[in-house]
Amino acid sequence: MGFALKFKSGQIVSLECGDACLHSEVIQVVEARQVCWVRPLMLVVLASGKESSAEYTLSDLRDGVDLLWPLSLFRAAVDTEVISLLTQLHSLDSKKKDAVIASRQLRDFVDRVWEAYRSAFN
């Protein structure tokens, strides 16, 4: 993970861990503490055992909790990677939106990030 650029409120940032990528909206950057307050939008998880990035699951996290995490974990999202995902997110059938499952997926992702980047939280 490289050191974060100067993020701005409303900007989309990404955090990758293993086969998953969390895309979030920046709410505020607290430079004095080198942390970023983000609102998770979606979690993209590549299908296990697949080499192609074309097969993935997309989870809607917009109704979930915000995170306050180290700036160093995030990178600026590339427009071309998130525009199609945001379109898919907005077109998800309401029956496919399950807040309990999405919350569990975010919690599992948070646990994986904590384990993988523990030193960033010190």
Give an account of the 3D structure.
By secondary structure, the protein is of the alpha+beta class. The chain has helices spanning 79-91, 99-116, and strands spanning 12-17, 20-30, 35-46, 56-60, 67-70, 75-76. The longest helix has 18 residues, at 99-116. The mean pLDDT is 87.
Q: What labels describe this entry?
A:
single chain; 122 residues; alpha+beta; 6-stranded antiparallel sheet; 6 strands
Instruction: Return the string of H and E elements.
Output: EEEEEEHH
How big a fraction of the residues is strand?
Answer: 25-35%
Quote the distance from N terminus to C terminus.
15 Å
Q: Any low-confidence stretches, pLDDT <50, length ≥5?
A: none
- Mean pLDDT equals 87
Helix segment count? 2
The helix-and-strand class reads: alpha+beta
How many E-type strands? Answer: 6
The residue fraction in helices comes out at: 25-40%
Present the secondary structure layout.
Layout: E1 12-17, E2 20-30, E3 35-46, E4 56-60, E5 67-70, E6 75-76, H1 79-91, H2 99-116
Antiparallel strand pairs: 1-2, 1-6, 2-3, 3-4, 3-5
Question: Could you give a short description of this structure?
Answer:
The protein has helices at residues 79-91, 99-116; strands spanning 12-17, 20-30, 35-46, 56-60, 67-70, 75-76.
